[in-house]
TrEMBL record:
CDD domains in the cross-refs: AdoMet_MTases (cd02440)
Residue ranges of the TM segments: none
GO BP field: methylation
UniProt lineage: Bacteria, Pseudomonadati, Pseudomonadota, Alphaproteobacteria, Rhodobacterales
UniProt-recorded name of the protein: FkbM family methyltransferase
Organism of this sequence: Actibacterium naphthalenivorans
Length: 232
Protein backbone atom coordinates (compact mmCIF):
# COMPACT_ATOMS: atom_id res chain seq x y z
CA UNK A 1 0.00 0.00 0.00
CA UNK A 2 1.42 3.33 -1.05
CA UNK A 3 1.87 6.03 1.52
CA UNK A 4 -0.41 9.05 1.21
CA UNK A 5 1.35 11.95 -0.48
CA UNK A 6 2.84 14.49 1.88
CA UNK A 7 1.09 17.82 1.57
CA UNK A 8 3.30 20.90 1.33
CA UNK A 9 3.44 23.19 4.33
CA UNK A 10 3.84 26.24 2.13
CA UNK A 11 3.21 27.18 -1.48
CA UNK A 12 5.91 29.46 -2.83
CA UNK A 13 5.48 32.13 -5.48
CA UNK A 14 7.75 35.04 -6.42
CA UNK A 15 9.91 34.09 -3.45
CA UNK A 16 6.99 34.46 -1.01
CA UNK A 17 5.49 31.75 1.22
CA UNK A 18 1.79 30.97 1.64
CA UNK A 19 0.52 28.41 4.16
CA UNK A 20 -1.08 25.58 2.25
CA UNK A 21 -4.82 25.48 2.87
CA UNK A 22 -6.64 23.55 0.11
CA UNK A 23 -9.85 25.49 0.74
CA UNK A 24 -8.03 28.71 -0.15
CA UNK A 25 -5.26 27.50 -2.43
CA UNK A 26 -7.20 25.40 -4.90
CA UNK A 27 -5.46 23.14 -7.39
CA UNK A 28 -5.69 25.80 -10.12
CA UNK A 29 -4.48 28.56 -7.79
CA UNK A 30 -1.64 26.35 -6.59
CA UNK A 31 -0.47 25.77 -10.17
CA UNK A 32 -0.60 29.48 -10.97
CA UNK A 33 1.34 30.33 -7.83
CA UNK A 34 4.06 27.79 -8.50
CA UNK A 35 4.50 29.20 -12.02
CA UNK A 36 4.56 32.79 -10.65
CA UNK A 37 1.41 33.52 -12.67
CA UNK A 38 -0.98 34.20 -9.80
CA UNK A 39 -2.37 37.77 -10.08
CA UNK A 40 0.21 38.19 -12.82
CA UNK A 41 -1.17 41.32 -14.52
CA UNK A 42 -1.77 43.18 -11.27
CA UNK A 43 1.62 42.10 -9.88
CA UNK A 44 3.54 43.33 -12.92
CA UNK A 45 1.86 46.74 -12.71
CA UNK A 46 2.49 47.03 -8.97
CA UNK A 47 6.14 46.02 -9.25
CA UNK A 48 6.76 48.69 -11.91
CA UNK A 49 4.86 51.70 -10.61
CA UNK A 50 4.85 51.49 -6.79
CA UNK A 51 7.78 52.95 -4.84
CA UNK A 52 9.15 52.09 -1.41
CA UNK A 53 8.11 55.45 0.06
CA UNK A 54 4.49 55.18 -1.12
CA UNK A 55 1.59 54.80 1.28
CA UNK A 56 -0.65 52.15 -0.27
CA UNK A 57 -4.33 51.51 0.31
CA UNK A 58 -5.43 48.09 -0.94
CA UNK A 59 -9.13 47.44 -1.41
CA UNK A 60 -9.78 43.71 -1.59
CA UNK A 61 -6.87 42.11 0.26
CA UNK A 62 -7.89 38.55 -0.66
CA UNK A 63 -5.41 36.11 0.83
CA UNK A 64 -2.77 38.72 1.59
CA UNK A 65 -0.81 38.22 -1.60
CA UNK A 66 -0.54 41.81 -2.77
CA UNK A 67 0.25 43.33 0.63
CA UNK A 68 3.02 40.75 1.05
CA UNK A 69 4.39 41.48 -2.43
CA UNK A 70 4.37 45.22 -1.75
CA UNK A 71 6.28 44.97 1.51
CA UNK A 72 8.73 42.17 0.76
CA UNK A 73 9.56 42.87 -2.89
CA UNK A 74 9.29 46.66 -2.96
CA UNK A 75 10.03 47.57 0.65
CA UNK A 76 6.83 49.57 1.08
CA UNK A 77 6.63 50.59 4.73
CA UNK A 78 2.94 51.51 5.02
CA UNK A 79 0.07 49.47 3.59
CA UNK A 80 -3.56 49.58 4.65
CA UNK A 81 -5.29 46.43 3.41
CA UNK A 82 -9.10 46.27 3.49
CA UNK A 83 -10.80 42.89 3.22
CA UNK A 84 -14.55 42.33 3.59
CA UNK A 85 -14.50 38.57 4.14
CA UNK A 86 -13.95 37.94 7.86
CA UNK A 87 -13.00 34.34 7.15
CA UNK A 88 -9.91 35.50 5.26
CA UNK A 89 -8.47 37.67 8.04
CA UNK A 90 -6.75 34.84 10.01
CA UNK A 91 -5.21 33.52 6.81
CA UNK A 92 -3.92 36.98 5.82
CA UNK A 93 -2.26 37.31 9.23
CA UNK A 94 -0.75 33.82 8.80
CA UNK A 95 0.69 34.82 5.40
CA UNK A 96 2.18 37.98 6.86
CA UNK A 97 3.70 36.02 9.76
CA UNK A 98 5.18 33.40 7.39
CA UNK A 99 6.93 36.14 5.42
CA UNK A 100 7.95 38.43 8.28
CA UNK A 101 5.73 41.20 6.95
CA UNK A 102 5.69 44.47 8.87
CA UNK A 103 3.94 47.74 8.16
CA UNK A 104 0.61 46.31 6.99
CA UNK A 105 -2.59 47.22 8.82
CA UNK A 106 -5.39 44.79 7.98
CA UNK A 107 -8.95 46.14 8.18
CA UNK A 108 -11.93 43.76 8.13
CA UNK A 109 -14.26 46.30 6.54
CA UNK A 110 -15.43 47.77 3.26
CA UNK A 111 -15.61 51.40 2.21
CA UNK A 112 -18.83 53.17 1.34
CA UNK A 113 -20.69 56.47 1.33
CA UNK A 114 -21.12 56.48 5.13
CA UNK A 115 -20.30 54.44 8.22
CA UNK A 116 -22.64 51.52 8.79
CA UNK A 117 -23.09 47.77 8.46
CA UNK A 118 -23.74 45.49 5.48
CA UNK A 119 -24.52 41.86 4.75
CA UNK A 120 -21.65 40.02 3.08
CA UNK A 121 -22.06 36.73 1.24
CA UNK A 122 -19.19 34.28 1.72
CA UNK A 123 -18.84 31.80 -1.16
CA UNK A 124 -16.98 28.53 -1.42
CA UNK A 125 -14.24 30.17 -3.47
CA UNK A 126 -13.22 33.27 -1.54
CA UNK A 127 -12.62 35.39 -4.66
CA UNK A 128 -16.35 35.24 -5.50
CA UNK A 129 -17.49 36.44 -2.07
CA UNK A 130 -19.23 39.80 -2.24
CA UNK A 131 -22.09 42.04 -1.17
CA UNK A 132 -24.21 40.67 -4.00
CA UNK A 133 -26.62 37.83 -3.30
CA UNK A 134 -27.77 37.42 -6.90
CA UNK A 135 -24.57 36.32 -8.63
CA UNK A 136 -24.44 32.96 -10.34
CA UNK A 137 -23.08 30.63 -7.69
CA UNK A 138 -20.62 28.64 -9.75
CA UNK A 139 -17.93 29.25 -7.12
CA UNK A 140 -19.10 26.87 -4.42
CA UNK A 141 -22.30 28.75 -3.62
CA UNK A 142 -23.01 30.92 -0.59
CA UNK A 143 -21.68 29.13 2.49
CA UNK A 144 -22.25 31.90 5.04
CA UNK A 145 -23.73 35.36 5.51
CA UNK A 146 -21.77 37.83 7.64
CA UNK A 147 -22.45 41.33 8.96
CA UNK A 148 -19.46 43.54 8.26
CA UNK A 149 -18.46 47.14 8.92
CA UNK A 150 -18.77 49.88 6.32
CA UNK A 151 -16.36 52.78 6.76
CA UNK A 152 -16.83 56.19 5.22
CA UNK A 153 -14.59 56.07 2.15
CA UNK A 154 -13.65 59.75 2.06
CA UNK A 155 -12.90 59.82 5.79
CA UNK A 156 -10.60 56.79 5.38
CA UNK A 157 -8.73 58.42 2.49
CA UNK A 158 -8.42 61.65 4.45
CA UNK A 159 -7.01 59.76 7.44
CA UNK A 160 -4.58 57.50 5.56
CA UNK A 161 -3.57 59.94 2.78
CA UNK A 162 -2.54 57.18 0.38
CA UNK A 163 -0.34 57.88 -2.61
CA UNK A 164 -1.24 54.59 -4.32
CA UNK A 165 -4.51 52.69 -4.67
CA UNK A 166 -4.62 48.97 -5.49
CA UNK A 167 -8.21 47.87 -6.02
CA UNK A 168 -9.83 44.51 -6.76
CA UNK A 169 -13.31 44.49 -5.23
CA UNK A 170 -15.33 42.29 -7.58
CA UNK A 171 -17.39 44.99 -9.25
CA UNK A 172 -17.89 47.38 -6.33
CA UNK A 173 -15.33 49.72 -7.94
CA UNK A 174 -18.05 51.29 -10.10
CA UNK A 175 -20.05 52.49 -7.09
CA UNK A 176 -17.18 53.22 -4.72
CA UNK A 177 -14.49 55.10 -6.62
CA UNK A 178 -16.73 57.98 -7.80
CA UNK A 179 -17.46 58.70 -4.11
CA UNK A 180 -13.84 59.52 -3.30
CA UNK A 181 -11.60 62.51 -3.96
CA UNK A 182 -8.69 60.69 -5.61
CA UNK A 183 -6.57 63.80 -6.20
CA UNK A 184 -4.09 62.80 -3.49
CA UNK A 185 -3.07 59.66 -5.38
CA UNK A 186 0.09 59.39 -7.43
CA UNK A 187 -1.14 56.27 -9.19
CA UNK A 188 -3.89 53.66 -9.08
CA UNK A 189 -4.10 50.04 -10.23
CA UNK A 190 -7.67 48.78 -10.59
CA UNK A 191 -9.01 45.43 -11.74
CA UNK A 192 -12.24 46.13 -13.59
CA UNK A 193 -15.17 43.72 -13.74
CA UNK A 194 -17.07 44.76 -16.88
CA UNK A 195 -19.05 41.53 -16.83
CA UNK A 196 -20.82 42.90 -13.75
CA UNK A 197 -20.55 46.69 -13.96
CA UNK A 198 -21.08 47.12 -17.72
CA UNK A 199 -19.92 49.95 -19.92
CA UNK A 200 -21.41 52.61 -17.66
CA UNK A 201 -19.55 51.26 -14.65
CA UNK A 202 -16.25 51.14 -16.51
CA UNK A 203 -16.78 54.71 -17.70
CA UNK A 204 -17.56 55.76 -14.13
CA UNK A 205 -14.18 54.45 -12.95
CA UNK A 206 -12.33 56.30 -15.72
CA UNK A 207 -14.30 59.48 -14.97
CA UNK A 208 -13.42 59.23 -11.25
CA UNK A 209 -9.73 58.89 -12.11
CA UNK A 210 -9.86 61.84 -14.49
CA UNK A 211 -11.56 63.97 -11.83
CA UNK A 212 -8.65 63.11 -9.52
CA UNK A 213 -6.09 64.20 -12.09
CA UNK A 214 -5.03 60.66 -12.99
CA UNK A 215 -4.50 59.58 -16.60
CA UNK A 216 -4.86 56.10 -18.07
CA UNK A 217 -1.41 54.53 -18.40
CA UNK A 218 -1.63 51.93 -21.19
CA UNK A 219 1.94 50.65 -20.86
CA UNK A 220 1.21 49.29 -17.38
CA UNK A 221 -2.36 48.18 -18.16
CA UNK A 222 -3.31 44.71 -19.34
CA UNK A 223 -6.86 43.66 -20.24
CA UNK A 224 -9.08 44.23 -17.18
CA UNK A 225 -6.21 45.48 -15.00
CA UNK A 226 -5.93 49.21 -15.68
CA UNK A 227 -3.31 51.61 -14.34
CA UNK A 228 -3.66 55.36 -13.92
CA UNK A 229 -0.99 57.88 -12.93
CA UNK A 230 -0.22 61.55 -12.67
CA UNK A 231 2.24 63.08 -15.09
CA UNK A 232 4.19 61.50 -17.90
Amino acid sequence: MKDAPTLPKFIRTRGLRFPYDPQIITRKRRRLMRDDHYEHKESEAVLRVVKADDTVIELGAGMGYMSTLLTKKLGVKTVHAFEANPRMIPYIHAVHAANGVEGVTVHNAILGAADGRAKFYVRGDFVASSLADNLEDAHGGVIAEEEIDIRNAQAVFDEISPSVLVCDIEGAEADLLPLIDLSGLRCAIVELHPQWIGQAGVQGVFDAMQAGGLTYYPRMSNAKVVTFRKGW
